[in-house]
Write a structure and sequence with these properties.
The structure is a single chain. About 75% of the residues lie in helices and about 0% in strands. It has 31 helices and no strands. It has helices spanning about 5-15, 20-30, 40-50, 55-65, 75-85, 90-105, 110-120, 125-135, 145-160, 160-175, 180-195, 195-210, 215-225, 230-245, 250-260, 265-275, 285-295, 300-315, 320-335, 335-350, 355-370, 370-385, 390-405, 405-420, 425-440, 440-455, 460-475, 475-490, 495-510, 510-525, 530-550. The radius of gyration is 34 Å and the shape is elongated.
């Protein structure tokens, strides 16, 4: 008679047969006299179920194992957590961990680390600190470098920067040495906080401790220095990286290209691009997108930007939705709207979903060209094709309805926007405020501004300038000055537009003494009056002089 033991069950489960046969054999073995499955046989079947993606049955088997009599050790606990994590069953992994902890075995530091790493990989950062507290309360479990690395990374992701820095000090007090991953995470945190000197000090500390810089260290340094405009230093770090024999990857290259693009150093951009081959780096869609965008922003000929799009396709790098959006926006800004419309059509043919940014650029350009009907037609197309409409596209259309005097259409669109579940933002409200002021609905505009604040949408200086401009044109200097004075007491920083609106109003009404006082105040606050205001003042002076000459006769 065949003797069933744990070794036999494990060996049979290794045989290449259907999973249903293995499950049937496992159940048959469990019914044999004087035989009980142990952790090794349960784990053997769990591995098989995991391998074929039978996660429901795998979970039932894990539950049976946990609730049964068999002993579960730290090794099996780590394996179960890892398997459930890989299957994206994070909550079940947590549940099993605590079940086993309370009934089967005391977790080790390795068990806690397995669970912490699984939570980190799946983005469950908030659970990690709770687990860390449990770990330290165990008495026999002590966090190691792996634990601290995961904790510091998680705190960085959650924006708890000070806590992450405290953990670095804590691990040093516990006699542990930070590894390159910890240093790299903290480099990013210090740059994010604007503490550049501390970030650079950390690099020096790495050198003193014999912790070698890797490609991630250089990436954080280059990105951090580039973000604060220290372009030369960022490039210097890149050159040091090459000198130290550390080969750059595409992330470093794209970071450097982005820095040069933003600082308008296109010669450096093209040089780095040409060198990419020698670094064994292949340009991605992100690389081409940055260069195309930089060329448009530098006022290079549109044909030059488009040639990079052609080069991208020739090099078999598939353009992304963002590539088309950059091109459409760039051609719109050069008033090449027909080319932009062709690109929108091509984008649709390639199967890309409607892009709000692209439609926004086109509708705005058509509106600025006073092609309101074409803008409205494109907006209707956008609504029909786009499942998730954007409040920004609505705002642009509301703005142009207001500009062409179609206030009712602007208001209807504002109300429609709310009906379809879109929340108006400050740009939407400002567009409708402008539309109201254009048709002299100043009281209604003031009421809308109040509604805007009450609904939780914070107004900006432009919101108040719109109404100030309306009052200056229809309410006279008294009401304009009243609002201007009120604006000074608010938590708003007045801009040159605010001053110029009031200056223009005062000069148009011949109040030159008051205008002179305001000009002095304006100058002391570092603002300049614009040409329109200056012309108004000269015109007002001319009228006064003319009146004086007439009176003298």
């Amino acid at each position: 008679m065949l003797k069933v033991d744990h070794r036999l069950v494990r060996e049979v489960l290794k045989v290449d047969v259907e999973i249903s046969v293995k499950i049937q054999f496992f159940k048959w073995a469990s019914n044999r006299k004087n035989f009980e499955h142990d952790a090794t046989t349960y784990m053997a079947l769990i591995y098989c179920l995991n391998e074929v993606g039978r996660y429901g049955e795998m979970w039932k088997m894990i539950q049976e194992m946990v609730k049964g009599k068999c002993l579960i050790g730290p090794l099996e606990l780590s394996e179960i957590v890892t398997i459930l994590g890989n299957a994206k069953m994070v909550n079940k992994a947590l549940s099993v961990f605590y079940q086993i902890k309370s009934r089967k075995c005391k977790p080790t530091s390795r068990n806690y680390n397995s669970l912490i790493l699984m939570l980190m990989q799946e983005g469950h950062y908030k659970n990690i600190y709770e687990l860390y507290n449990d770990m330290t309360n165990e008495g026999n479990c002590f966090p190691d470098t792996v634990t601290y690395s995961a904790l510091i990374y998680s705190f960085g992701k959650l924006g708890h920067d000070e806590s992450a820095i405290r953990l670095l000090d804590e691990m040093k007090e516990n006699g542990l040495h930070p590894n390159s991953r910890i240093y790299n995470t903290l480099l990013g945190i210090f740059f994010k906080m604007g503490n550049v000197e501390r970030a650079l000090g950390l690099v020096e500390e790495m050198k003193l401790k014999g912790c070698a810089s890797n490609v991630y260290t250089y990436t954080e340094l280059i990105k951090g220095l580039g973000k604060i405009g220290r372009t030369e230093e960022a490039y210097g770090i890149f050159l040091s990286m090459l000198k130290d024999g550390c080969r750059p990857d595409i992330v470093v290259i794209n970071s450097l290209i982005n820095i040069f693009c933003k600082s308008g150093r296109l010669d450096n951009v093209l040089k780095i691009f040409e060198e990419m081959c020698s670094y064994k780096c292949t340009p991605t869609a992100i690389t081409y997108n940055m260069i195309i965008k930089a060329l448009f922003e530098s006022n290079a000929p549109p044909s030059e930007a488009y040639s990079w799009f052609e080069k991208m396709k020739a090099n078999k790098v598939p353009p992304s939705s963002f590539t088309y959006s950059i091109l459409i926006d760039g051609f719109c800004k050069r008033n090449r709207v027909e080319k932009a419309l062709l690109l929108l059509e091509e984008m649709d043919e390639k199967g890309f979903p409607p892009c709000s940014f692209a439609y926004c650029s086109l509708i705005d350009t058509l509106g600025k060209a006073k092609r309101y009907e074409a803008a409205s037609e494109l907006f209707q197309e956008y609504k029909e094709n786009c499942g998730d409409a954007s409040s920004r596209v609505y705002s642009v259309m509301i703005k142009h309805f207001g500009k062409c005097g179609k206030f009712n259409e602007a208001l209807d669109l504002f109300n429609e926007m709310k009906r379809v579940g879109l929340s108006p933002d400050v740009y939407t409200y400002n567009a409708l405020l402008s539309a109201m002021v254009r048709v002299n609905m100043i009281e209604e505009a003031q009421s809308l501004l109040q509604t805007m604040e009450e609904s939780g949408c914070k107004s900006n200086i432009h919101s108040h300038n719109i109404i100030l401009n309306g009052l200056a044109k229809t309410g006279g200097p008294k009401r304009a000055m009243e609002m201007f004075t009120k604006m000074k007491t608010m938590k708003l920083k007045l801009d040159s537009v605010s001053y110029n609106i009031v200056l223009g109003c005062l000069s148009r009404n011949g109040m030159l003494e008051e205008a002179a006082k305001l000009m002095k105040e304006m100058g002391s606050n570092g603002f300049e009056y614009d040409l329109i205001t200056y012309s108004s003042i000269l015109e007002a002076v001319g009228k006064i002089n003319e009146g004086e000459r007439t009176t003298s006769f």
